[in-house]
Design brief:
The protein is α/β, with parallel strands linked by helices and about 325 residues long. The protein is about 25% helix and about 20% strand.
Length: about 325
C-alpha cells in the first residue's frame, strides 16, 4: 500500500520523540515534517536535543513552525494544551487527519476518545480528529474491559506513576530520581475517573488515588473491581485475555497475565512497550483484585495514537 504522509507536532518532548522513534520506517506512514516551538524552527533534525535512552532515528528534515506545516495526510500531536487548542483544529479544517495526545480534546463531542481494542465503535463519530487516552487509564481499562460481562459495580484504583509522565525535566533531575519527588499529581484522579467511565461507558462509583514515584518509565496500578456475581480466577484470567488487532503496532498479547507482581525491569517493554502486564490476580467472591503495568510514553501516549491511526486506515476512516 502507498504510505500516508505524516507531520509530527512537537520535536523535543518525550512523547514527540517517542513518535519520531516509533514512526521511523513505518509501513503505513512516512514522516515528512516535524513542527517545533519557535526556538527550534530552522534547525536540522539532528540538532535538537535527544532525550530518550534509545538511539536517535535519522530524518533528513528541517524543523518547521506550526504555521508552516505542509499538506500532509496525517498529523500526530504531542502538543501542550494551549498550543493544541489552536493548531489541531486548524489542521483538521485543512483536511488533515489529527491524532492527538492533548487532554483538552478528550471527551469533546465529535472527537472520539479511543483505545482500538476497547471501544472501536467510538470511531463512528470520527470527523478527522481523534484522541488517545490519559496514560494512566491504559493499565486500568485494559484488564477491566475484559471483565465487563461480569457486570462492573464499582472500581478502586491506586497508581504509582513514573517521572516521565510529567515530562522530560524530571528525568534529568537528580533529586527526583533519588526519591525527592512530590507524590501528588494535581487533577490526575479526576481525569482518570472521567476517562475510564467514558471509555467503558460506565456509570458506577470509581475511586482513585494517584501518586508520582521515582522511576523513569512505567505506570503501575493496583485495582479492586466489584462485579455483579461471584466468579473464580480461571474465568477472570480467561476474560482478561483481550484479542490483539492485526496492525503493525499491535502486540502479540494486549494483556499478559502473570502469577507474580509486574515489575518495570522485566515487563516495561513487553510487546515492544504496547502490552499491559497484569499480575497478582485475586478473586474473593465477587471482588477481583489485580496489579498492572504499562509503558506510559509508548502504549499510553505515542504508541497509542499510532495504533489508533493504523486502525483508522484499516477501517477506511482514512483513505487515499
Amino acid at each position: 500500500m502507498a504510505r500516508y504522509s505524516v507531520a509530527i507536532l512537537g520535536a523535543s518532548g518525550l512523547v514527540s520523540q517517542r513518535l519520531q522513534e516509533l514512526l521511523y520506517d513505518h509501513p503505513f506512514f512516512e514522516v515528512v515534517a516535524i513542527a517545533s516551538s519557535p526556538k527550534n524552527v530552522g534547525l536540522l533534525y539532528e540538532e535538537i536535543e535527544w532525550r530518550l535512552e534509545s538511539p536517535r532515528p535519522y530524518y533528513d528534515i528541517l524543523l518547521c513552525s506550526m504555521s508552516d506545516i505542509p499538506d500532509v495526510d496525517i498529523a500526530f500531536s504531542a502538543l501542550p494544551n494551549n498550543v493544541a487548542e489552536i493548531v489541531e483544529p486548524s489542521l483538521v479544517a485543512r483536511g488533515i487527519h489529527v491524532f492527538s495526545n492533548a487532554s483538552v480534546f478528550r471527551r469533546v463531542a465529535g472527537i472520539p476518545l479511543v483505545i482500538p481494542e476497547i471501544n472501536p465503535e467510538a470511531m463512528v463519530s470520527y470527523e478527522g480528529h481523534a484522541c488517545a487516552t490519559n496514560c494512566t487509564v491504559v493499565p486500568v481499562a485494559m484488564p477491566i474491559k475484559g471483565l465487563m460481562p461480569l457486570g462492573i459495580k464499582s472500581v478502586s484504583i491506586h497508581t504509582r506513576q513514573a517521572l516521565s509522565g510529567a515530562g522530560w525535566r524530571l528525568l534529568f533531575d537528580e533529586s527526583a530520581l533519588s526519591g525527592d519527588v512530590n507524590p501528588f499529581i494535581p487533577g490526575e484522579e479526576e481525569k482518570l475517573v472521567a476517562e475510564l467511565k467514558h471509555l467503558l461507558n460506565l456509570e458506577i462509583p470509581v475511586f482513585a488515588s494517584c501518586n508520582r514515584v521515582p522511576h523513569k518509565d512505567g505506570h503501575f496500578v493496583s485495582c479492586g473491581v466489584e462485579v455483579s456475581r461471584d466468579t473464580d480466577i480461571e474465568e477472570v484470567i480467561r476474560l482478561m485475555a483481550i484479542p490483539s488487532l492485526d496492525l503493525p503496532s499491535s502486540p502479540r498479547e494486549v494483556n499478559s497475565i502473570i502469577d507474580e507482581s509486574p515489575n518495570r525491569a522485566d515487563h516495561l517493554w513487553a510487546g515492544n512497550g504496547m502490552t499491559t502486564t497484569i499480575g497478582n490476580v485475586q478473586v474473593e467472591g465477587n471482588v477481583i483484585r489485580f496489579d498492572a503495568l504499562s509503558h506510559n510514553t509508548v502504549r499510553g501516549a505515542a504508541g497509542g495514537v499510532i495504533l489508533l491511526a493504523e486502525f483508522a486506515v484499516q477501517e477506511s476512516y482514512i483513505t487515499k
